[in-house]
Each structure stands twice: as C-alpha cells, then as structure tokens.
Amino acid sequence: MRTRTLAGLAPVAAALALVLTGCSFGTAPEDFDRSPETVGTDLKAADTSDLQLPLIVEPLELVEPGWDLPVQSAGPVFLSAGSGEESLTYSAVNTKGRQLWRAERPSGCTGFTVTADGDTPLAVLTDSESSTDCDEDVTASAYDLETGNKAWGQVDVPGPLRGPGTVFAAEDAPANEAVVLDPATGEPAEDADGGGSGGVRHLGEYQGLILDITDGKLVAGEDGATVWEHSLADNDWDAEKLTAAAGAATGEGFIRLDAGDGVGPVFDRDTGDLLDDDARGVAGDANTQAVVTLGKSGITVIDETGKNELPVSVPQSVLLEAAAGGLLYLREGGKLRVHNATTGSLARGYRADGSGVVAIPDVITTAGVGTLRAGDRTLLATDRVVEESGEG
C-alpha cells in the first residue's frame, strides 16, 4: 500500500508537536495506563455533507477516528493519535472502520512509527515518565499493529524519535549521534558489515531496511547484510548534506532523500535503483504500484513499463499532493487540479457540482481505501459501502 506520507505533512506534525509540547511546561506527566487497551468497536459513519470527496472513495462509508497527527499504516491497519488536554490517545483502526486498540501517552510524545518484524507490522510508540514534553528519559516500545500486544520494550533511547523509522536522537544532537533500533528486537541495530554502530551515520529505517552513510557510501542493509549501496562521490552527493527528506514515509516501496534545498534522490527500496536524482516531491500510487516524482524534468511516472515523463506544466509553486487510483493530485496555492497519470491530461477527480472543503487522498491501500485530509479533519474511507436511502 501506499502509505505516503506526503512531504507536506512534516511541517504540520512539527507544528503540532510544538503546540502540544509548548502547553506542557516540561512537567511530569499524569499517571495513566500506557498499555494498549483492546477496543473492537466499529466507528460510526462520519458526516461528510460539507466536504468534496474524491470520486475514487465516493461509494465508501467514511469514519472519523479523531486523529490529529499524520497517519501511518501497514496492510489494512492505520495508526495515529488524537490530542487531549493532558495526553495523546493513539488508536489503530482497520479498513472496516473498526477501532482495534488504543493507548495513551504524554502530550509531547508525538513521535511514533510503523515498522515491521518480518511480516508482522509493528507500532513503535515513545514515552517518558518524567516529562510531558517527552524530551527526557525517553523510552520506546513496540506493539503488534493489529492486536496491540507488546513485541518489545520499553527500551531507553537517547531522545525523541527522529525517524524515518526507528531512528532516535537527543534534541539538537548531530546526525552521527542518532541511534537506530532493530525493529525485531528493540536493540541497537548492527551495521551492514556486522559491526557495531560506531562511526556510521544513520539516515533512516524503512520497514527493517536500515540506510546509513559510511566510508563514502550510501549503504542499505538488512539483518546485518548489505542489500545495496551507492558511491557518494560518483553521484556528487555531499555526506554532510544528505538527509532523509522531511516527512519521508517508510512503507511505500521507495526512499526519498534530501541532498540540499529539499531536492534529492529517490530509490527503489528493495533494489536500490535510482528512480530520480533531483526530486522535490514523490508519491506512490498503491493501486497501480507506480512511483511518481516531481523534479527538474517535471512529473515522471515510474512503473513496471519504465519511466513516463508527463506533458504537465509544473512551475516551482506546484506541489505533488498525492497519487491514487491512476490520478495525480497537484496543488498550486489554494487550487487543486487532478491529472491522468498515464496521459497527463486533466481529469475529473471530484463531482463537477460539488462544494465544501476539498478532501485529498492521503494514505491509500492497494484496495483503494484509506485516509483523506480535509482541512483539519482526517477521515478514513472504509470498505463499508454507503447504503442507498430508500426515500424518494
């Protein structure tokens, strides 16, 4: 599935984190039960009468889980958190609109990630028993994403979750002091050469694949073995500038880095193939399995047939919001336009006579269900079909 998480969400998450932590004054958090509580309740249908919904989800029933943080997912389960006065409430909801479990954390513990131990998706949540800001005595614990059962933890980490994936570091610590945890065990991960983590700069953890900079190379490793690598010098990448792109997702099948000024390479997660070397935006279409990049060459759709550069005007002010169902959603200022991902021509993504807040696809699964962003609301399009009214 896609799990995008579009780059544009990162500033939102950061801003929310600042707001939440800014209200906490660094005091010790309230004593509440942090263990996931099984729920098993079907969420009721949301009122969407004031929204313009994408046609791709219009037949589906939407629910509103009350999430304020960006959404992550794996398979049919989505995870995020809603904010209260004193705490965050994380909840996992599946594509049937059923809330599976929920767990509370201090209001500043906004750092979380969805990763995997083999075929088992995991939710990694951070915590602190001494600070609502979650910047002291930080710990991490992993839970089965579907059941909420603990997989490992709690383990001490050097600071908040920096990401992508299970990368942690103290506030303002340089990148070479970040620690990456093995998602299977919660222990510090070994380098691809089987050694310790000293002298290696960790860029991110992508569903078990750990991306490092070491010895002048960009190295992706899994289970202590190198999977693929690229020379920094051969590609004119500066080791000091190369970072994970803001808001980078971990489960979309691609890895996006920032080589400076928000522009950088995009790799196939599994093969290491360089899909684009100067992208400023990227999105995965879970329905078509295509990766779409926005770079100097414009919009490029990459799929099993190769690369297709679309004849679409994309000035610097245009942002790639999403790719779903063979459609591309582009934003320029306050305007949203939809294009066909095969031809580049304008496409109808919404009802022509629609009105209200425009809902944009966010995290969409291969089955075509998933989350939407509509202003400050996050909704989940379930696999429940809207029942036709018998009136009229």
How would you describe the overall organization of this protein?
The chain is mainly beta. It is 4% helix and 45% strand. The protein has one helix and 31 strands. The protein has one helix spanning 9-22; strands at residues 37-42, 51-52, 60-63, 72-74, 77-83, 87-94, 98-106, 112-117, 120-128, 138-144, 150-156, 167-168, 179-180, 201-206, 209-214, 217-222, 225-231, 243-244, 254-258, 264-268, 274-285, 290-295, 298-303, 306-309, 318-324, 327-332, 335-340, 357-358, 360-364, 370-374, 377-385. The strands form eight sheets. A seven-stranded antiparallel β-sheet has the order 18-19-20-21-22-23-24, with no helix packed on it. A five-stranded antiparallel β-sheet has the order 1-7-6-5-4, with no helix packed on it. It has a four-stranded antiparallel β-sheet with strand order 3-31-30-29, with no helix packed on it. A hairpin with a 2-residue loop joins strand 30 (370-374) and strand 31 (377-385). The longest helix is centred in the N-terminal third of the chain and has 14 residues, at 9-22. The chain is globular and about 55 Å long.
- Proportion of residues in β-strands: over 45%
Any idea what the radius of gyration is?
A: 21 Å
Distance between the termini: 39 Å
Number of strands: 31
Protein structure class = mainly beta
Shape estimate = globular
Strand order of the largest sheet: 18-19-20-21-22-23-24
Mean pLDDT: 89
Amount of helix:
under 10%
User: How many DSSP helices?
Assistant: 1
The main pleated sheet reads as: 7 strands, antiparallel
Poorly predicted spans: 1-25
